[in-house]
Amino acid sequence: MDALARMLEGYLPEEQIDQVRRAAAFAKNVHDGQRRQSGEPYVYHPLAVARILADMRLDHTTLIAAILHDVIEDTGISREQLSNEFGADVAALVDGVSKIAKIEGRTRAEMQAESFRKLLLAMTQDLRVILVKLADRLHNMRTLGVTSTEKRRRVARETLEIYAPIAQRLGIYFIRTELEDLAFANLYPRRYAVMVQAVKAQVGDTRKLIREVEQKLSSTLREEGIGATVVGREKNIYGVYQKMRRKKLKLLKVTDLLGFRIIVSKVDDCYRALGVAHHVYKPVPGEFEDYIANQKSNGYQSLHTSCVGPAGHKIEIQIRTRDMHHVAESGIAAHWQYKLGERDSQSAPQVRAREWVSGLLDEFGGSSAMDFVDNVKVDLFPDEVYVFTPRGEIRRLPRGATPVDFAYAVHSELGDHCVAARLDGQLEPLNTHLRNGQTVEVITSKHARPNAAWLNFVKTAKARSAVRGYLRTQREDEAVRLGRRLLEIALRELSVPSSVLKDEDRLQPVLAAHQMSDVEELYAAIGVGERLAALVARHFLPEGEAVGASGSAAPLAIEGTEGLVLSYARCCHPLPGDEIRGHVSTGRGIVVHRLDCKHAKGRPQDWVPLAWSERVQGDFLSEVRMKTIRKRGMLAMVTAEIAGAESSIENVQMPDAAGGDAVEMRFIITVRSRVHLARVLRRLRRVDGVERVVRA
């Protein structure tokens, strides 16, 4: 505590330091007898967390909350007791950091997700909650070595997936980089050790090289009349590792392992210093970013450039003012200005951070805790692109974002109805990755709807959530329609009129037996295979009446437009014209098989009689197997015939193309019916060199 007090003397009044001392004494008392896995007294941990925050020059309320952050969770002290002792603000901060109590029947992952949602909810009230949590996680990561291997890996993975990206999002650079390197070392210890040695071997004596660049830049800036501080450093190991993975590079190809910061007094000097740096060291073309004019969402501002330094080493140079540097290192924490206990809570980065957290909770707060955490992970993108609307407004999106992400960022209606986009006037597909500076114009159609395929390329959590929400609603509607048809068929088989579905006296006991609130919920459960229509139908028989039979009822007619609750088996690829039957599969609805499929066997009660409707429409997949002679251009001739028969190829395989006089080809193609498939097969048999063509 004395060491912490000496740190606080530089910026806090004596009476506030005394309050921090009182909190430390309180924590020591309530944590008495508790020890960490390392064997040291437990109170050492909260004091270490407070020292991390004291380095960031945070206020005494945050420091007291840091010292007491485990009191509610690990001792018998309640929030009310804490509020009476240290005030409502401290109690709220400690409660926000505390995990929720164990709930019976919940898994560890679900409990962690619920605690994380609670943390973000507390952040909307006071952003200092996340500062305490990040400092807590940082000290835990520093002391993770005494825990089991399984726990080290679990905590390290969670840190990389959630807490380091949050520190990045909030602009707290020093916490983010240390969390990343510590997590990397615990998750992949061998890779980390190899990376450390390899970086040292490549850069050599970094101290000498860094000193040389610092002196050269400092003297040249001084000659130009620019007062500046130049500081060099090695890049963090995890950042180098991620760059190698992202760009598929070997370490020898990663040349910018050293970074330098030029810190000046005013914005004008930033651009003058950039000119000096480019005069001293040759700039690398295409590697300049102006984050002063286009600041990041977390408030970060700097000029970034890459140059060729001494001995051909590529160096990264960041140029910023002192205020920008303060924000870059501490992010939102840099904007807590305390004067006599008052704080400026309206600084731009704080407002943006609060808007981000509030937006997440508004968008995904109603989803399950696990889905909420997944959506937050999607939203935590460190890299961004800046694009323009047709009116010239700037939109900030994560790197890798597509026109669909842009459309949903503008308005949900625009996203729901987009069909294509013009990027700088050129028509492009919706999965195109956006680039900095592009003007994006979204093309819509009132009949267009979100597509499940969009989930393969959208990047923003908002777009992903909107598409999933639409598909979920569409699936429910389709399930209700299909379930009603299946139940009506099952009732006819039992000679029960379908009018019983409107008879409340007959309906209510059935709903109660299946624990359903209304008939639509029952239809949906049948449609997705959670209930069997035949068993539900028997509940409508008058009590004591045997299962009647008026002969088999008409099979369910398949139109090809049933959507997500009806699928076609890949083992036999049924087509209109085939004799078919359906298997009721929980969660998938009905899976359609050909009657001669080897999998279309089993208990009769698990199967549904099906037939093709006269109004059947759409394209269906079919597998075609061929044997041809080996000659140049054979594949091209075959594919041309398939295209000429108004069919498209979804997949092609040539399993024994390695040698021999014959080649086997397997195609998955789209056709409209058995008749259409027969036409495709006839055309293929006429190709010179084709020996055999069959439908699989």
UniProtKB/TrEMBL annotation:
Keywords: Hydrolase. InterPro entries: ACT_dom, Beta-grasp_dom_sf, HD/PDEase_dom, HD_domain, NT_sf, RelA/Spo_fam, RelA/SpoT_AH_RIS, RelA_SpoT. In eubacteria ppGpp (guanosine 3'-diphosphate 5'-diphosphate) is a mediator of the stringent response that coordinates a variety of cellular activities in response to changes in nutritional abundance. GO terms for cellular component: plasma membrane. It comes from Solimonas marina. One of its GO terms (biological process) is nucleobase-containing small molecule interconversion. This is guanosine-3',5'-bis(diphosphate) 3'-diphosphatase. Residues 42-141 form the HD domain.
